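Hi support team,

I'm filing this because I wasn't sure whether my run with 1,6-di-O-phosphono-alpha-D-glucopyranose finished correctly. The job status page said complete, but I'd like someone to confirm that the output block is well-formed before I use it downstream. Pasting the exact inputs I used:
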Amino acid sequence: HAHAVLLNSLTEASNLYPKEEGVTYSYGTAGFRTLGAKLPAAVFRTALLAVLRSKRLEGASIGVMITASHNPEPDNGVKIVDPSGEMLDPTWEQHATALSNCPSTDSLISTFTTLATHLHVDLSQPASIIFARDTRPSGPDLVKALEAGLHAFGDNVKIKDVGVTTTPILHYVVKATNDQSGTYGAPTIEGYMQKMSKAFKELVGIRGPLVPLFVDCANGVGSSAVDTMIPLIEDVLLLRPMNTATGTKGALNDECGADYVKTKQAMPPNLAQLGTLDKPGTTGCSFDGDADRIVFYYVEDATRTFKLLDGDKIATMAAVYFKELLLRTKLTGEEKLSMGVVQTAYANGSSTKYLESRDIPVECVQTGVKHLHHAAKKFDIGIYFEANGHGTVLFSPHAIETLRKASPVTLEAGNAIRHLLNFYELINQAVGDAMSDMLLVEAVLAHKGWGSAEWNAGYQDLPNKLEKVIVPDRNHFVTYDAERRLSHPVGLQELVDIEVGKYEMGRAFVRPSGTEDCVRVYAEAKTKEDVEVLIGNVARLVQEASTGQSMVVAS
Ligand code: G16
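And here is everything the job wrote out:
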């Protein structure tokens, strides 16, 4: 009987959220992402999947985040967060896609019941869902669609609305809620901010107050996180928020934010106009629209040129510093902790060389936080960053236990152990967080006694460029070797190889985006001029291949 009541209730609710004909959803790099107006049906159905997942995991809390992060304001998206605070188990992505694409309520209900049986879900189990959204105008309607899906299950589903907040905060709240040990932190925004600020202040110690930092909030939800953090750390580090116009239509990610800065390799025009970074020694950073990415930058004194410190620069500085700390702990034998860095094909060639020259293991995986996170777990201290500024540092349970139990042989060893444990408290263990990464960078700089210029001095980026190519169907582009090579369209890779071979230190690759309807082309080479020609030629090859123009492999 209860089963029939549930199916009735789901049917009624689903009829209010029919799937538009002609729309095909795909759970991609970061969940479903498309125009906000096209998403209500997918969000409603995501609610159903999130409940199935929670019930399957005996009522563990599952997160749902409504955001399209770096995408333009009219886009929106939805993604599911697993109980550990990590991205949805990839084997469930196909179920999310299957539910969203059911053409009618009838097929949705039958797919839902089939999935429940196939996945061994006991529908009478309780479920718990925690959700949040970013500041996009389409957010409130999508929250309604989500709630409609959740409420259809009646009292059997516990719902927690974290409100308008950043993606990493939602991940944190999910992780902390499910943390059986109760040691990870209080499952609230305040709990998270307290945990981070306390660790940060302990790390900075007597090295503060630090030079104030300008924070470009991309006119997005990151500005509220920054506002909450300001009073907690202002005696040590003054944060100066910029681009905080969350209520201004069209402002989100527009000519600002981490994606703009990284892609254009320039600071947001309004910061440049205001002369925000003109004073020598000043540094700025940019969050993206949902505050899970960060890049830093400054203006070089002598040349007055813009200098970007991206995800690669964060990863390399953190890796070199954590390696030093690990050596200082003097932990040996069973207690010796491993450390490695995970990057993607976008990592600047110079950053990889720099790490390898310091005997730091580096692994390359395909784009997408879930892939990097997974690979980083292999190390006791796993550092992962995408060049675009997504990333974090993971500490294995073994690392934490070892550090907590260690009996330091010297004062210096004791300090190194204490620092590492504070970094563990500071750094989000569920997903990359612009806020926590910002404080990680500031803490390392404080320990080294460095400014941005010293940080940047480690290695010099090879000139590089990223471009979008709009093609009729990006699914025709299939990659392998961690997205560094193409298997389809057949013959295109050979042409790219010939092009790349013409330039000293040349490298280029082509991959379909998982979040936007385009193909991305990346190129690097020894000189800027070469990069321009190389990327132009590869982009042209991509255009030709996608429009079916003949591809002749030169002999
Ligand atoms: C998302 C993913 C990132 C990825 C980015 C771009 O970021 O979480 O891992 O680097 O999209 O992906 P693609 O090149 O496939 O479009 P965000 O910040 O938009 O959530």
